[in-house]
Design a protein that fits this description.
Layout (H helix, E strand, L loop, with lengths): L7 E4 L3 H13 L5 E4 L5 H7 L4 E5 L7 H11 L5 E5 L4 H10 L3 E4 L4 H27 L19 H13 L6 E4 L6 H12 L5 E5 L5 H9 L16 H4 L4 E5 L6 H13 L1 E2 L8 E2 L3 E6 L3 H6 L5 H7 L2 E4 L10 H15 L23 H15 L7 H5 L2 H4 L20 H15 L4 H8 L3 H9 L2
Parallel strand pairs: 1-2, 1-3, 3-4, 4-5, 6-11, 6-12, 7-8, 8-11
Antiparallel strand pairs: 9-10
Length: about 450
Amino acid sequence: MATSTETILIVDDDELVAEAYSSILEAAGWAHRVVINDPREVMAFVRDSTIGAILLDLNMPHVTGQELLESITAERPEIPVIILTLEDNVDVAVDCMRIGAFDFMAKPVDENRLVNSVAHAVRVHALHEEVQVLSRRGRDFELHYPEIFSPIVTASDTMHQLFAYIETIAASPRAVLITGESGTGKELFARAVHEASGRGGQFVPVNVAGLDDTVFSDTLFGHRRGAFTGADSNRKGLVEQAAGGTLFLDEIGDLDNGAQLKLLRLLQEEEYYPLGSDSAERSTARIVAATNADLGARQETGAFRRDLYYRLMGHRVEVPPLRDRREDIRLLVDHFAAESYRTLNRTPHPVPPGIERVLQGYEFPGNVRELQAIVFDVVSRVGSDPISTSDLLAHPLLSRHQAPDSDDGRLSYSGSIPTLEEAERFLIREALEQTRGNQTAAAKLLGVSQSTLSRRLSGS
């Protein structure tokens, strides 16, 4: 039973229906409820009140629910709005979710689902307030459980802000969508979400790329004996294995349409049907999904359902590529080198200073995973010796990206020797080109502080 002190606003021009919703919420434990039957009075109340969630009818005279939704999301976007309507129409639902609706339910509304949706909305609203406090505190924020994030090697402020965000949303029941390029460590973030949540169930990962509707259903939902030829016993699906825990769906952007529809039902109704069963099973697993695909572009082509996208976007974590956190390169090289020596059962050697400068201009299309592979390969090649700058430069991936006139480590020039001023301008320009204008990375490549590079650029 809820014990929330948050105010729930109920907007419906049908007085009997609005009072029925109010009674349902009162029985569920919400003492503070406000009913408004005239939609023209809503925005004045919304502007001046503290509201945990809004139940909003879509079809009303004078001002439609969709018009109110647009106004509310424009002025008070932090308030979750749950749309209630007689129109059970996917296009209408998608439009409302796009505008910013928290949930969409067709009338007559199931009481349990209404109570659960309001509970989720109130919790997300509270989490939003926590995130706002967190953002105001900025870098002074201290993690409550830093050990949860220890597998992610970083000194980046951006990454630490993501850790803080994950701690804040961890207890939320809503889905989490983790986006980022291949090799950025999305599964590590998914595991961190699970660990921070304190859920007692398992973390169950599955790569859903290439799974068709049938295989997806059998993998996630399991089957009953006799469901198909060869099904001679009941089989648990991964949703059941993840009960009370977290189900991590990797490469979610590659699901076919049939599997997307079943995942949508799982997220929306928190229930599923094992193959061969006519009875729905309840799910208590929290869904965390990850993709390196552009889901926005896939929606435009019809390859990914918009309503599923909005369900998955309960919370979003975007993991930055390695080229945007180059301050982590040295830490990662040290970490992967030590890991490689252990794996190969060799005596560890320290990585020589300055070796990271060789890597500063490289874009790392494979991100952290690519750097890990490069370091492991280099350590494998050097035998019992420590790795050196030349060993890194000789790696096939890196050697292809060296300037053709710098293979011997010397500057090349034609004609008269350039002046020091000309050489300095050339080196600064070259460093900025290699780092795509990133002054912090360019300064490291040149071996100077960022403030020194800024002074050089300003001419002072």
